[in-house]
């Protein structure tokens, strides 16, 4: 990525963070909650806190760069689409943390644990309010599109994109849980989970929304967009799984080995199990799903993976999928603006470099 592109990406992030804060400043006025309710404003505050602790806003970046495929001029509807994307992400994070029993998210308490602290003697109330907070974020993600000052046909098309993205993500969550009940998650299953759980709403939907806002019809290029999103999603999930064991805990701001302790059959775990046997396999299997697994044991598993070439193979796989995605994007040059095509061609390779 050139400095010019990095500056543009940073600009998207800054502008959106201001937009998101302004959205939450006025949100309570648009929700007709009874005056006696204390739980409703508390829920909105928790959603605000989680949403505004966001990271690089890459979904917003993809949205804007997709519009730039069509035009370099300002595009109406991108703000509403960006809010919708990030509210859907907030919904996913709230429910993810409940499913995974995660105490923290983005450097603060997860919504679930915030409710557990508020209702220490009422665990079902904490669960129920967490589910409802996530559901509210989903409803808000569609409402901002309904309220957007766009032609009816454009609003309808955007709502259809987000509804499909939400549906596919729910299916992705289901098969993600199902994956961990399989003896060994094969490559096809892992790719399918990555596609449904992240690629379709984190990559495909933002690109479709950006094209729609710019007046393009994404269904005309459905196959290319879906293949690009699938490959980038696989590569990104591999990177996340790789970093969970082989990454630097200080740089990431969280401990390594979480997936192993949680018993998740990730790309990394699958690669480990296929590379070891005997006492090493027994050690990995004993650590898998053991929440009390010590940092020393995780370090041993990491060392086994490094010695057995798991890191090298995973890095090669990530680069292979990134290069395939880059090739798909490069094929868009005859159709769309070269500058934006270059961004999408470089993006997956940039993601791989961040993991190594």
List keywords for this structure.
globular; 356 residues; Polyprenyl_synt; Farnesyl Diphosphate Synthase; 16 helices
CATH architecture of the largest domain: Orthogonal Bundle
| DSSP strand content | under 5%
How would you describe the oligomerization state of the chains in this entry?
single chain
The top-level CATH class of the largest domain is Mainly Alpha
SSE order, as H and E?
A: HHHHEEHHHHHHHHHHHH
- Class of secondary structure makeup: mainly alpha
Looking at the structure, the CATH topology of the largest domain is Farnesyl Diphosphate Synthase
Q: How many H/I helical runs?
A: 16
Domain module count = 2
Family: Belongs to the FPP/GGPP synthase family.
Keywords: Isoprene biosynthesis, Magnesium, Metal-binding, Transferase
GO molecular function: metal ion binding; prenyltransferase activity
InterPro entries: Isoprenoid_synthase_dom_sf, Polyprenyl_synt, Polyprenyl_synt_CS
